[in-house]
Specification:
Layout: E1 2-4, H1 19-25, H2 31-44, H3 52-59, H4 63-75, E2 79-82, E3 85-88, H5 91-104, H6 108-116, H7 118-132, H8 138-151, H9 155-167, H10 173-185, H11 191-214, H12 223-235, H13 240-248, H14 258-270, H15 276-300, H16 305-309, H17 311-317
Parallel strand pairs: 1-3
Antiparallel strand pairs: 2-3
Length: 321
């Protein structure tokens, strides 16, 4: 492929990048992709044919990653494929187009209302100062304004959104948008709503640690396992006191796992058992009834329908104390 730009003697030339590369692209691309972009920008000044295999050897990056990196920059519009290779596009021109495009979708009245909203403008400036050292790219202003409209967050929630992502070293659009969507789906609009969500999440985190510890796990729970706990506590409305009954019943199991716990708790939920007393009574009655059926079988030698009906339950509650 051929890369084109200007031509200067290497000894006296320099490779420059606009500031928008650092504000808009650096945090969103992987390290290998950034290496690829910087090197092809450097090479583009000399207009030489460059093979992907050569890039792979020069940058010490595998061939597949080079291909993926070039595709990534092509998809973002940073480079454009042509018959003979690629053209390195002007980042400032790209950002100017992005900045203009969302504005034409807003009515004059909406723009006027945004300008008049002093609290919102103050919140955006606070975001600029707190998280961008006062040099936030202009495109962020349009994004934040659109997020205000899309999610109906108040100003405190919007600042908290950026703080949340900043604390996780993930201050880039895709991550912020993902978190915003999650908060929106949890009906967060005010800071009070957000505080309630955090409190709920904190309780879940405590449950994750407690249940993992009781199961003897030294690792963090997987998202799949956390999903089980959320089902038990949110959908089934079971507290830790009920979950602990199921946990205690796993002591006779060689390898207790979340699938087994879920079957137990789901069975109790399906039976409409909601309290510790109801569950303990059920287990006691089941155990006694099962003993009576086995005693009857032993005395009569007859494997009746009643026993067959309990086969699946026996499998679930086998070896429980």
């Amino acid at each position: 492929m051929k890369l084109e730009q200007n031509d200067l003697p290497m000894l006296f030339s320099s490779t420059e990048l606009p500031d928008v590369f650092f504000t808009e692209y650096l945090s969103q691309a992987s390290g290998d992709y950034i290496k690829i972009y910087l090197y092809i920008v450097f090479l583009s000044k000399y207009g030489k044919d460059v093979k992907i295999n050569d890039l792979s050897k020069k940058l010490n990056i595998d061939f597949k990653t080079i291909q993926e990196g070039i595709k990534y920059w092509e998809d973002t519009g940073v480079i454009t494929k042509k018959n003979t290779g690629y053209i390195i596009n002007n980042l400032q021109e790209i950002e100017l187009h992005k900045l203009y495009k969302p504005k034409v979708t807003l009515s004059a009245e909406n723009i006027k209302q945004t300008a008049q909203n002093q609290y919102r403008a103050k919140a955006i400036e606070n975001i600029n100062t707190l998280f961008f050292q006062g040099i936030m790219s202009p495109s962020w202003y349009s994004d934040i304004d659109l997020w205000f409209k899309k999610y109906s967050f108040d100003e405190e929630v919007m600042i908290a959104l950026f703080q949340y992502c900043y604390n996780r070293s993930a201050l880039h659009r895709n991550y912020i948008q993902t978190v915003a969507e999650a908060w929106f789906k949890s009906n967060v609009k005010t800071y009070s709503d957000l505080d309630s969500l955090f409190e709920k999440q904190e309780k879940l985190n405590t449950l994750y640690k407690s249940i993992g510890k009781k199961l003897g796990y030294t690792r963090a729970l997987t998202e799949y396992e956390k999903g089980y706990i959320e089902k038990w506590t949110i959908e089934y409305a079971f507290g830790l006191n009920i979950i602990e009954i199921a946990l205690k019943k796993t002591t006779a199991k060689t390898n207790p796992n979340f699938d087994y716990l879920d079957k137990l708790l789901s069975d109790w939920h399906d039976r409409g058992l909601k309290t510790v007393e109801e569950i303990e009574n059920f287990l006691s009655e089941f155990k006694q009834k099962n003993k009576d059926i086995k005693k009857l079988e032993k005395n009569t030698g007859y494997n009746n329908y009643e026993q067959r009906k309990y086969d699946n339950l026996n499998s679930l509650y086998a070896n429980l104390g």
